[in-house]
Write a structure and sequence with these properties.
- It contains eight helices and eleven strands.
- It is of the alpha/beta class.
- The chain folds into two domains: 7-97 and 195-228, D-Maltodextrin-Binding Protein, domain 2; 100-194, Periplasmic binding protein-like II (D-Maltodextrin-Binding Protein, domain 2, 3-Layer(aba) Sandwich), CATH 3.40.190.
- The strands form two sheets. Strands 2-3-1-4-11-5 form a six-stranded mixed β-sheet, sandwiched between helices.
- β2 (44-46) and β3 form a beta hairpin.
- The longest helix has 20 residues, at 209-228.
- It is elongated.
- It binds adenosine-5'-triphosphate and 1-O-pyrophosphono-5-O-phosphono-alpha-D-ribofuranose.
- 1-O-pyrophosphono-5-O-phosphono-alpha-D-ribofuranose binds next to β9 and α6.
- 1-O-pyrophosphono-5-O-phosphono-alpha-D-ribofuranose (PRP) is lined by residues 15, 156-157, 172-179.
- Its EC number is 2.4.2.17.
- One of its GO terms (biological process) is L-histidine biosynthetic process.
- Keywords: Amino-acid biosynthesis, ATP-binding, Cytoplasm, Glycosyltransferase, Histidine biosynthesis, Nucleotide-binding, Transferase.
C-alpha cells in the first residue's frame, strides 16, 4: 500500500446505507452528487475531502475490500465480521445502527410443538439441515451444542426453504419479524445480536495511524453528536 494512496471508505449499498449516511455526513464527509443520483452506475465517488473516496459495495464485500486493504475503512455488520473472521479487520467502533439478530426459525407448527414441550430447538438432536447465508456461524453454533449442521448456503429468500422442503430450519436475520411471519415461520433460538461497526484495515492502521485515528475519532464524535440530538 503506497503511503500517498487516497483513503477509501467502503460503504454497504443495501438497507443500512440510509442509516450510515447521516453518520458519514456528520463526520464531515460529503460525497460527490453522483452518489445520490439513482441513474448513476458509478461505484467509486470522490468526496469533499481531498484524498478520501467512497466505494459502494454489497454488505459482505465491504468486509472483504477492507480486509484485503483495497479499502482502508468501512462499515460492516458484526454478522459479517463473525462469518468471515478476517484477522486483518479491526473494529474500533460500534455504530449502533443496522440492529437485527441472527436467529433459527422453524415452521409455525414445529415451533409451537417445541415450545409446548418446553424444549429448546436442538434438544435431543445429533444432526440438522439448515438453509442460511451464514454457514460458518451456523456450523459453529450447532457444534457448540454437539449437533452436526448440514448447511445449504443461500444468498437470500431463506424463508422459502422450509415450505419447499429444502431444509426444515433456517438461520437468518430478523428485525421486525415481518418476513418470518409472512412466510409461516417462528424464531426458536437466537445466535447473536447484530449492529454495524466501523472497521479499519489493521496494516493500514499501522502504516497510516494519524489519518486512520483521525477518521475513527471523527466517526466517534459524529456518533456522539447524533446521539445527543436524539437522531
Ligand atoms: N432486517 C434487517 N434489519 C436491520 N439490519 C439488517 C437487516 N437485514 C440485514 N441487516 C444488516 O444489514 C447488512 C446487509 O443486509 P443484507 O445482507 O440483507 O444485504 P442487502 O441489503 O439485502 O444487500 P445484498 O444485496 O448485499 O444481499 C447485514 O449484514 C446486517 O448487518
Ligand atoms: O424481520 P424483518 O424486518 O422482516 O427483516 C428480515 C429480513 O431482512 C433481511 O432480508 P433483506 O430484506 O435484506 O433481503 P435479502 O433476502 O435479499 O437479504 C433478512 O434476510 C430477512 O429476510
Amino acid at each position: 500500500m503506497e503511503l500517498t494512496a487516497p483513503l477509501v471508505l467502503a460503504l454497504p449499498k443495501g438497507r443500512i446505507l440510509d442509516e450510515v449516511m447521516p453518520l458519514v455526513r456528520a463526520a464531515g464527509i460529503e460525497p460527490e452528487a453522483a452518489f445520490d443520483d439513482p441513474k448513476s452506475r458509478a461505484l467509486k465517488f470522490d468526496t469533499n475531502i481531498p484524498g478520501l473516496s467512497i466505494i459502494r459495495v454489497r454488505a459482505f464485500d465491504a468486509a472483504t475490500f477492507v480486509a484485503f486493504g483495497a479499502a482502508h475503512l468501512g462499515v460492516v455488520g458484526n454478522d459479517v465480521l463473525r462469518e468471515f473472521d478476517y484477522d486483518d479487520l479491526y473494529s474500533p467502533l460500534d455504530l449502533g445502527i443496522g440492529y437485527c439478530r441472527l436467529s433459527v426459525a422453524l415452521p409455525n407448527e414445529m415451533a409451537q410443538e417445541i415450545k409446548a414441550a418446553g424444549r429448546t430447538d436442538s434438544d435431543g438432536l445429533s444432526h440438522v439441515r439448515v438453509a442460511t447465508k451464514y454457514p460458518n456461524i451456523t456450523r459453529q453454533f450447532y457444534a457448540e451444542k454437539g449437533v452436526q449442521a448440514e448447511v445449504v448456503k443461500l444468498n437470500g429468500a431463506m424463508e422459502l426453504a422450509p415450505a419447499l422442503q429444502l431444509t426444515p430450519r433456517i438461520v437468518d436475520l430478523v428485525s421486525t419479524g415481518g418476513t418470518l411471519k409472512a412466510n409461516g415461520l417462528q424464531e426458536v433460538d437466537t445466535l447473536m445480536e447484530i449492529t454495524s461497526r466501523l472497521v479499519v484495515n489493521r496494516s493500514a492502521f499501522k502504516i497510516r495511524p494519524k489519518e486512520l485515528s483521525y477518521w475513527t475519532d471523527k466517526f466517534r464524535d459524529a456518533l456522539a453528536s447524533l446521539s445527543s440530538k436524539g437522531a
